[in-house]
Amino acid sequence: MIVFLNGEFVEDHQATVSVFDHGLLYGDGIFEGIRAYDGQVLELDRHLDRLINSAKYINLHMPWSKQDLRDFVLETLRRNELHSAYIRLVITRGRGDLSLDPTRCTTPTIFIIATEVNLYPAELYQTGIKAVTVATRRVAGDALDARAKTLNYLNNILSKMEATAQQAHEAVLLNNEGYISECSADNIFIVKGQQLVTPPAHMGALEGVTRNIVMDIAAEIGLQCQESPIRPYDVYAADECFLTGTGAELIPVVELDHRPIGAGVPGKTFQQLLKGFHKYIKAHAVLID
Ligand code: PMP
After folding, report:
1. pLDDT score, position 282
2. Residue 126 phi, psi dihedral angles, 5° rounding
3. Could you name the CATH architecture of 124-283?
4. Which of 1, 4, 18, 244 could share a disulfide with 95, CB 3.0–4.6 Å?
């Protein structure tokens, strides 16, 4: 596998970063998860815009333009001869010393890994997944803004461990007020009648690129979509529930906290949105070649 690291394309076993890298020492960095389908990258601009905003948020000066970043991503795919892939773009504060002080880090580290996509087993897209509300809370948005995609994922990992220990596929994380924020690596939507609801960013939700796509599709097919606070009760009482993410795409949730959601099977609105999503992929992508 060829990895892009600090301006060079190298074999993955040669792609090493310093033990003094502040991304490793302190989670001081930002990232994006991006997806390519059949030779096209989906919503590359939206991902890069979010990355650039995350960099502004953590006050990391990037010496690369948006066009540079675009070229690095596309070239990583070409070098690996990948047409469909999951792409991880990571930028850290770079090598410093053992103090927290980011001014000791003179050059950010950048790397891009492109791999085969591998998330939930295929049958779960047909049957739906089980989720549990976990004890681990989402990092408070007034401590770390949920819109920034930083390397601070420890609580997401703890939440995933809790879900796995309970034989569930996904964790639903609450914020400090007991409202649902999102899942360990996905946004959440519920359907009630003709209404789609997803938690707003200020409740602790990442402004997911897939979440935005679903909102666009909903508008196109005449479904109302609102960003409103929801509690576990709203999910128990919903007709349908599903998650969105670059890796997961759209996946139905048929059970939360051992309660079936709606009829306990993937619903009609989900199927409709999934169809719309597949169409959207074809219509809105950047060609690799
Ligand atoms: N929330 C979290 C915590 C995530 O890690 C992700 C995956 N990037 C998402 C939501 C979904 O965002 P996107 O649709 O941009 O992948």
Report:
1. 86
2. -90, -45
3. Alpha-Beta Barrel (3.20)
4. 18
- Provide the ipTM: 0.99
Mean pLDDT score of the chain: 96
- By CB atoms closer than 10 A (0-12, 13-18, 19+), residue 2 is buried
CB 59, CB 148: distance < 8 Å: no
Give start-end residues of each CATH 3.20.10.10 domain in the chain: 124-283
CA–CA separation, 4 vs 91, rounded Å?
Answer: 12
Nearest-5° Cα angle at 260, 167 to 132 = 35
From the CA atom positions of the chain, what is the Rg in Å? 19
Which amino acid would we find at residue 96? G
Nearest atom (ligand 1) to Cα of 211: 14
Q: Which atom of ligand 1 is nearest to the CA of 210?
A: 14
Indicate whether residue 204 lines ligand 1 (CB < 6 A): no
- Confidence bin at 119 (pLDDT 50/70/90): confident
Residue range(s) in the chain whose domain bears CATH number 3.30.470.10 = 2-115
- pTM value is 0.96
C-alpha 99 – ligand 1 centre gap (Å): 30
* Phi–psi pair at 63, nearest 5 degrees: -80, 5
For residue 20, the tally of other CB atoms under 10 A from its CB is 14
What class does CATH assign to 2-115? alpha beta
Give pLDDT tens digits for 198-240: 999 999 999 999 999 999 999 999 999 999 999 999 999 999 9
**Rounded CA separation 228/237 (Å):** 15
Tokens of 43: 């919503």
Q: Whose CA is nearest to atom 4 of ligand 1?
A: 185
